[in-house]
Amino acid sequence: MPRPPDRIRLLQAGALVALLLLWQGASWAGLPEYILDPLAIVRAMAAALASGELYRHVGASLARSVPGFLLGSALGVAAGLLAGTWRAADEVLTPAVFLTYPVPKIVILPIFMLWFGIGDLSKILIIALACAYPAFINAYYGARQAPRILVWSALNMGAGRWRVFSRIVVPSAAPLVFAALRVSLALSFIVMFAAEMINSRSGLGYLIRDAENSLRFDLMYVSLVSIAVLGYAGDRLLRYARGRVLAWQEAASA
Amino acid sequence: MKLLRRFAALALVLAAWEAAARSGLWSPLLFPPLGKIFRELAAFASTTEAWEQTLVTLERAFAGFAVAAIAGVLLGMLMGRSRVAAALLEPLFSGTYAVPKLALFPIFIFVFGIGSLSKVALVFLECLYPIVIITSQGAQHVNRALLWSAQNMGASRAQILRRVIVPATVPFIFAGLRVALPVAMIVVIITEMVSSADGLGYLVIYALSSLQTARMLAVVVVIAALGVALDALLLFARDRLVYWEKLETYYV
User: Fold this and answer.
1) Do B230 and A198 count as a contact with CB atoms less than 8 A apart?
2) Residue A245 has what DSSP assignment?
3) Do B216 and A197 make contact, defined as CB atoms within 8 angstroms?
């Protein structure tokens, strides 16, 4: 993406500053106590970072969302590539995935809680399940979009099936797979947060519910800001990884 | 034969389930037999309460989705066609894209109350993102040759919007709606599970905490069926309305 011209950047910065000033001004004019102003949020955040309690919750949340995301995306991508290249897998897997795609995966959480207990395992598995769907679908379409002419030429020149798969199918699926990972990452945070709000004794979702029940508005905003920062950082990390892996086609898609 | 293959995986899962239920290795609380779930489903569907609760959930999902569709299409078109709007709104949407809006729910409860409004507001917010992002992509990539020829032939701005830009963007709008519709259901169910006294999500949690697994699974089946039916409905509407271009809408 080309860098936006200075005029545009100035406009963006100006809008941000105006928004913050408006918010702060509104709070001086009088806002209900459950809406904190930017300065109060910064103060609450600093206090939470200093106390150390926050790190425990962040750690607990990441210990659920990261394994769930990795497991779900890996399985989803693997199954999607398989279904995209092997007809038998396509006929069995694809209809099942598409049929269950619009089902809100979170309703499976209670069943997982019965089967795997109310600990971390059921939460990791529900996150993995939710992440697997976008990964499967994009990997599937990505693999099917592999240019036929390249596959044929490779086969003609004596490449084996595995070579065609690793040199042609996987690279052509890669851009769509990264797009799916971005969706899966956002999903993993939503599902993690939901699972923690529904049933947990730790994590950011628990923190926000606990703060809500004890009317600690400052802690509610601390949890909100923390999850926002985590989500944003994860997204950036993914984009960085995408830039490294897909350097060869950056120019084409931008 | 083709139909058989389509449901092969599903049939396999159901068969495995029934086998697990009959094997006696697990308590029927963990694997209630299919027959029992089906009976619960029939019993559930015969009560008026079930229909009322379903309606409550659907109303919340639709209200948030509809407002998000209107606002999202307008914002997306604006972002796609105006550089200033894109410069102001694009960083906002892409910066907060990966942030779970669900974290705002406790604050929404204080602002909008514990009833439907806080849930509708959250559905709106979560649905807004895919609709805005995909619509703006569509509006941005209108074929330039078409725009130029319309201008050349003396079309006014309003005519260009109505005859060129909108028809080119509508397939993308439907793609966005299709991504957003399951999101609406997810968010309603989650918020009802977290904090509610009605709706299908509440029924799931209620059945779980009273250990009525078969009843819980019956409600899960209802929710799943609703998700599939809504998607089918949207596809039906799309195929009726947008006959000029088919967009493979599953990947994002």
Assistant:
1) no
2) H
3) no
Q: What is the DSSP letter of B211?
A: T
What's the pLDDT at B166? 87
Q: Where are the beta strands (DSSP E) in chain B?
A: none
Q: Which of A107, A137, A212, A224 to mutate to test the interface with B (most CBs of B within 10 A)?
A: A107
A29 occurs within a structural domain: no
Cβ atoms within 10 A of the Cβ of B187, count? Answer: 30
A with B: how many residue pairs have Cβ under 8 Å apart?
Answer: 161
Q: How far is CA B84 from CA A4, A106, B104, B136, B173, in A?
A: 11, 39, 28, 13, 21
> Which residues in chain A have their CB less than 8 angstroms from residue B87's CB?
4, 8, 11-12
Q: What is the pLDDT of residues A67-99, one digit of tens each?
A: 999 999 999 999 999 999 888 888 888 888 888
Judge residue A131's burial from the number of C-beta atoms within 10 Å of its C-beta, 0-12 exposed, 13-18 middle, 19 or more buried: buried
pLDDT, tens only, B145-204:
888 888 888 888 888 888 888 888 888 899 899 889 988 999 999 999 988 789 999 999
Per the structure, the count of domains in chain A is 1
Chain A residue whose CA is closest to B186: A104
Q: Which domain holds residue B217?
A: 36-241
CATH number of the domain that residue A100 is part of:
1.10.3720.10
Per-residue pLDDT tens digits for A115-167 = 898 889 999 999 999 999 999 999 999 898 888 888 888 888 888 888 888 88
Give B98's DSSP letter. Answer: T
CATH number of the domain that B129 lies in?
A: 1.10.3720.10
> Which chain B residue has its CA at the smallest distance from A214's CA?
B106
Q: Which chain B residue's Cα is nearest to A136?
A: B251
Domain count, chain B: 1
Query: Which candidate in B192, B193, B195, B215 is best for mutational testing of the A interface (most A CBs within 10 A)?
Result: B193
- The answer to whether the CB atoms of B87 and A179 lie below 8 A apart is no
Give the minimum alpha-carbon distance from B220 to chain A in angstroms, rounded to a whole number. Answer: 6
CA distances to B185, B189, B203 from B54, rounded to whole Å, are 12, 11, 10
Q: Is residue B18 part of a domain?
A: no
Whether the ipTM is more than 0.90: the answer is: no
Q: Does B9 touch chain A (CB under 8 A)?
A: yes
Q: What residues 34-73 of chain A have any CB closer than 8 A to a CB of chain B?
A: 34-35
Give strand ranges (E) for chain A: none
